Amino acid sequence: GNSVTQMEGPVTLSEEAFLTINCTYTATGYPSLFWYVQYPGEGLQLLLKATKADDKGSNKGFEATYRKETTSFHLEKGSVQVSDSAVYFCALSEYNQGGKLIFGQGTELSVKP
Amino acid sequence: GAGVSQSPSNKVTEKGKDVELRCDPISGHTALYWYRQSLGQGLEFLIYFQGNSAPDKSGLPSDRFSAERTGGSVSTLTIQRTQQEDSAVYLCASSKGGDSYEQYFGPGTRLTVT
Comparing C-alpha atoms, which of B99, B92, B53 is closest to residue A101? Predict the structure, then answer.
């Protein structure tokens, strides 16, 4: 079945450091890929998405590129801020499956000043 | 406009009791999803409603779990004969429908079974 695997956390970085959170997926069709973020005490919200191979999603300085050849959708940011501290979830929705999301296990990011 | 709302925000119940969790989606969103977030299992899909189509119940963990969506709007998730392993945060989300539309999540209901 479909699945998503993320690098384990927690990840601790200093402010202005470079961030990469790895995400790989297994899918039988042509999924759309998403990164959702959960800030402390808040609900899940969409960070960025990509719907086909080689698409790049971007938002708030974060980027992720849909790589079909490596079945990956790694999240990157060039310079993290304390306010980026949150839990990040990689997810996929399979084509023609109504959009139900399959999530990775989540990666907690802590950014220190 | 108003986002997805869920009630109650917290629910403590005794093992063996039934519980009902409510979700009010964003007006005009045709798709509604229920997920469960627990320490041991992460974020799991439970059930999905799209318009008047039959729901996709493929994620429900047992026949103690059921859900309905009345009038294409409000949804209720019911857990019968609750067990301690049902303790989790139950999240509802809605979207315009389809594979690539953003899902908007509610704040969740934290269920604790004692």
Answer: B99
